[in-house]
Design a protein that fits this description.
Strand content of chain A: 5-15%
CATH architecture of one domain in chain B: 3-Layer(aba) Sandwich
Structural class of chain A: mainly alpha
Radius of gyration of chain B: 21 Å
Radius of gyration of chain A: 23 Å
Largest sheet of chain A: 2 strands, antiparallel
CATH superfamily of one domain in chain B: NADH-ubiquinone oxidoreductase 51kDa subunit
Number of strands of chain B: 18
CATH class of one domain in chain B: Alpha Beta
Largest interface: A-B, 49 and 69 residues
Structural class of chain B: alpha/beta
Oligomer: heterodimer
CATH topology of one domain in chain B: Rossmann fold
Strand order of the largest sheet of chain B: 2-15-14-18-16-17
Order of helices and strands of chain A: EEHHHHHHEEEEHHHHHHHH
């Protein structure tokens, strides 16, 4: 029986409930898009046309790639394209904005010097290979944007940070607290000096080289975070736990080489792609655990792994860790089973009887 | 006693109340021309007819006898002649009906009233009068009055947490004293120590009505769906948790609906068997929403006509509340003892969107008042792996309140998956 099985008299018969909440998948995805707007604006401010190009290319190619996949899989080309119009109409009806979110996030986690064809390749890879081939929305195993980022990172070595000063794009080390990378300059421009940025600089993003255009301004991410929390799209504690725990573990790891310095804590928290990843990527519904306890385990594991790998590799590893934890998510969901209301462990119950 | 605040549920939803008929006093439906009374008025086996075709019956006369402990006696709801005993399609599948054509004689049958009854007499009378839980489950009340372990608390369920429905609210306002007396009989039968009545805080007039009684503890429940669920109500009113698969009696509690309590008073004091009940007819597509005393077996068409007919063509006809009720394809059905409402929902009120893929947002699990994982059940049930659906999603503990499907942004048919899982698992046992 389908949801809206109609009878002759136009009275619908379906399983209860007969009233529903107002939330839809498209609405949630639109909320995420709105939450990403501040970061996109910040990227446009810091990287101007470079950012504009990346945003346009990524979003457009992601949506286009999804459309092509849908068109082919629903038989748009069959019967000499006679059903093409109908397929396009269906696509528009079911379009849930998930590809817009993927394209936006991917653009925001790419460095400013990414070529247009690299961005396009990344977006197509994300949508076609990571999402649509696994069955589309809700069926992907890993976060499409993170996978696209890693794909580009490995294929084109996009690890260096970028900084736009007076219209000139310079590349340099991504500032990861305490570990400044030496990096060759790309496209002949001189690498900039490597002063340690102040906390305010880290927070606002001015004058700091980052390996991703959207990760620069923490203020913009914070605005997006608050919006998502107020709209109840994400749980408030997840990003906070991830960022704080990761920062703390980083401080502890740094202490193994010398003194324990808690003042480095905000520095660790704000540097690199940690904040952006924690707010927009680790909270991705499809690829993170479904239960609260699973989410706790997931975020703790993410935090610890990020801190540890940052310490040993000195590069921005957030996307890699997210991919790794995405793959562990089904395992977490299988083994951390929620106990129903009123459940007591057998042993405890026996004690209670005594 | 002065009302105290109930515990908040850890999860639940706040659907729009839409109690548009709450100001309408209960009215008596004029006796219908013909009633079709189902023999399946409660859980358990259908009752066995004790009348033949052609028999002349009085209103309130026994027409079918309970078959087994969880079955209930069935009574003629109008005076007239039995014209047929036939099997028809009913709300929940095929059922056998006794058809009575009104004679207009208005003759009534009553059991002798009981004065100062003993617990045993009360239980016997409740059983004799075919009283079942009128909240919707239809579990015979007499069975609930003989719990397997001692009970110290009787909880009256006046939450009426379903949107739209108002018949219990009206009953609490207009028959406060009868409900209290019924509760005292029930308490006596159970040998319980105290009576608690739980009422949601969107009915302050009903709360105020019960406060003057010194032996009734009134609990003001937070307006939260499904506050009227048995386990949720017990938790909110007493703080006790009922373990999975156990009865409220295991926590020392018995829950009865206020309408059931009212029926007990009538049965004990007037000897009136359960052949009519309060029904709310409401929704955006009905002309004048009303609360109506309705004989069991009344054709739904008669109820709609009594309420001035359709205002607009309804998009959905629902028997019961909008969260758990059954959608009907037409008015060709008859009320049962458990029918609490008839909703004619207009196009703006119902949601008819098609399901889209699950995005694992977890909103169903966050809202679940039983702490289950409906998305897991849906996922595995769709794949046909019902064992995993039951284990991973906890479907067997589901109370089918509909909260998960209400919040689902992907409009998944979660209740359908859960029911299918329960069915399949029952088959395997």
């Amino acid at each position: 029986m389908t949801q809206a099985e109609q009878t002759k008299s136009q009275v619908a018969v379906s399983v209860p409930p007969h009233v529903r909440g107002r939330r839809t998948t498209r609405g949630i995805m639109l909320d995420v898009v709105i939450a990403l707007v501040p970061s996109a604006v910040a990227a446009l401010v810091f990287f101007q046309l470079y950012a504009l190009m990346l945003l346009l290319v990524c979003v457009a190619s992601a949506v286009a790639a999804e459309f092509v996949c849908y068109f082919i899989s629903k038989g748009g080309f069959a019967h000499k394209c006679s059903r093409a119009g109908e397929v396009v109409k269906n696509w528009a009806r079911q379009f849930d904005c998930t590809s817009v979110v993927t394209g936006l996030i991917l653009a925001l986690i790419l460095p400013a010097y990414t070529k247009w064809y690299e961005a396009l390749l990344g977006a197509v890879f994300s949508i076609v290979l990571v999402k649509m081939l696994f069955g589309g929305t809700g069926k992907n195993l890993v976060n499409p944007a993170a996978a696209g980022r890693v794909f580009l990172f490995i294929s084109f070595s996009l690890s260096a940070g970028a900084l736009l000063t007076d219209g000139v794009l310079t590349t340099g080390a991504t500032y990861l607290s305490g570990t400044l990378l030496s990096s060759g300059s790309l496209s002949g421009s001189a690498s900039y000096a490597e002063p340690v940025p102040t906390l305010l600089q880290l927070f606002l993003g001015n004058g700091v080289a980052t390996a991703a255009i959207g990760e620069t301004c923490k203020l913009a991410i914070l605005v997006g975070y608050l919006y998502l929390v107020i709209r109840k799209v994400i749980k408030w504690w997840q990003p906070l736990l991830l960022i704080a725990l990761s920062g703390f573990v980083s401080v502890c790891l740094a202490a193994t080489g010398g003194t324990f310095d808690i003042t480095l804590f905000p520095d660790y928290c704000l540097s690199g792609g940690l904040v952006f990843g924690a707010v927009f990527m680790a909270t991705d519904y499809v690829t993170s655990p479904k239960g609260v306890w699973g989410q706790l385990v997931y975020n703790i594991a993410l935090a610890v792994l990020t801190a540890v790998l940052r310490y040993f590799t000195h590069i921005e590893v957030m996307s890699f860790i997210i991919l790794l934890m995405n793959l562990l998510t089904p395992l977490i969901d299988t083994y951390i089973v929620r106990k129903p209301f009123g459940y007591k462990r057998e042993r405890k119950a026996k004690e209670a009887v005594k | 006693m002065k009302a105290i605040k109930g515990k908040r549920l850890f999860a639940g939803i706040h659907p729009a109340g839409r109690k548009i008929s709450s100001g309408k006093p209960l009215e008596q439906l004029p006796p219908p021309e013909e009633v079709c009374i189902s023999l399946s008025q409660s859980l358990g086996r259908p009752a066995v007819p004790v009348v033949e075709k052609g028999a002349v019956v009085k209103r309130g006369e026994l027409i079918a006898r309970a078959d087994g402990a969880v079955s209930s006696n069935v009574f003629a709801s109008i005076a007239g002649e039995v014209t047929d005993i036939r099997t028809m399609q009913a709300q929940g599948g095929e059922e056998t009906f006794i058809v009575i054509k009104a004679s207009g004689s208005g003759e009534e049958f009553r059991y002798p009233p009981l004065s100062d009854p003993s617990p045993q007499e009360i239980i016997e009378r409740v059983k004799e009068c075919g009283i079942v839980g009128l909240g919707g489950a239809g579990f015979p009340t007499a069975v609930k009055l003989t719990p397997p372990c001692p009970v110290d608390t009787l909880i009256l369920n006046g939450a009426e947490c379903e949107p739209y429905l108002t018949c219990d609210h009206r009953l609490m306002l207009e028959f406060t004293d009868e409900i209290v007396r019924g509760a005292r009989y029930l308490k006596q039968a159970l040998d319980a120590k105290r009576i608690i009545i739980g009422i949601e805080d969107n009915k302050p007039d009903a709360i105020a009505a019960f406060e003057p009684y010194p032996d009734i503890a009134v609990v003001r429940l937070k307006k939260q769906y499904p506050m009227g669920g048995e386990k949720q109500l017990v938790y909110s009113a007493t703080g006790r948790k009922i373990r999975p698969g156990k009865l409220p009696a295991d926590a020392g509690v018995v829950v009865q609906n206020v309408a059931t309590s009212f029926a007990v008073t009538e049965a004990v004091e007037q000897g009136k068997p359960l052949y009519e009940r309060a029904v709310t007819i409401t929704g955006g597509a009905v002309n004048t929403p009303k609360n109506v005393w309705t004989p069991v077996g009344t054709p739904l068409q008669a109820l709609v006509d009594f309420c001035g007919g359709e205002k607009a063509a309804p998009s959905k006809i629902v028997q019961g509340g909008p969260m758990t009720g059954i959608a009907l394809p037409s008015y060709d059905f008859y009320t049962h003892k458990t029918t609490s409402g008839l909703l004619l929902m207009s196009a703006e009120e119902v949601s008819l969107s098609e399901p889209t893929p699950c995005i694992s947002c977890g909103k169903c699990a966050d809202a679940c008042p039983m702490k289950l994982m409906p998305m897991q059940t849906d996922f595995y049930a769709e794949a046909g792996d019902y064992e995993a659906a039951a284990k991973q999603g906890g479907a067997l503990n589901c109370i089918e309140c509909g909260v998960c499907a209400y919040v689902c942004p992907a409009r998944r048919p979660l209740i359908q998956s859960i029911r299918k899982t329960k069915q399949e698992m029952r088959k395997r046992k």
